[in-house]
Design brief:
Structural class: alpha+beta
Radius of gyration: 15 Å
CATH class: Alpha Beta
Number of strands: 6
Strand content: 35-45%
Order of helices and strands: HEEHEEEE
CATH superfamily: Hotdog Thioesterase
Helix content: 10-25%
Number of domains: 1
Largest sheet: 6 strands, antiparallel
Strand order of the largest sheet: 1-2-4-5-6-3
CATH topology: Thiol Ester Dehydrase, Chain A
């Protein structure tokens, strides 16, 4: 049973097709969230990754985890429509097995540390109870009107 369906997620996250990678939220409290991504053969990335052996790119699994984390950060925020949750760091990412069409990806994220505008979360992605990926992500809350700082070349 979904706590949040795709339409409610779309009210929270700014992501849209083909980059909205969370289909529903099935568990959530102040420090923990579980999202679901149904992986279908129609995903646009499978066309090139890989045509004869479709595998969901690991970076997109981590992105799905970060989007679930973003729902947790934004859900109860009054002015969430004026905010973005930006991914600022990925640590300790590990990919354990391929995710393929037909898999249901379970994205479990929990808060490790939270400050005013930054949250660090640890997560694990599973398919049928088997760990397929894990990572820690750091997200920063930003105003939509703010322009991201230009990268510094050294």
């Amino acid at each position: 049973m979904a706590i949040l369906d795709i339409n409610e997620i779309r009210e929270i996250l700014p992501h849209r097709y083909p980059f909205l990678l969370v289909d529903r939220i099935v568990e959530m409290d102040g420090e923990h969230i579980v999202g679901i991504k149904n992986v279908t053969n129609n995903e646009p990335f499978f066309q090139g990754h890989f045509p004869d052996f479709p595998v969901m790119p690991g970076v997109l699994i981590v992105e799905a985890m970060a989007q679930a984390a973003g729902v947790l950060v934004l859900k109860n925020m009054e002015d969430r429509h004026n905010k973005l949750v930006l991914l600022v760091a990925i640590e300790n990412a590990r990919f354990r097995r391929p995710v393929v069409p037909g898999d249901t990806l379970r994205l479990e994220m929990r808060v490790i540390k939270r400050k005013a505008s930054v949250a660090k979360m640890a997560g694990v992605a599973t398919v049928d109870g088997v760990v397929v990926a894990e990572a820690e992500v750091m997200c920063k809350l930003a105003d939509k009107e703010e322009k991201p700082a230009a990268p510094v070349n050294s």
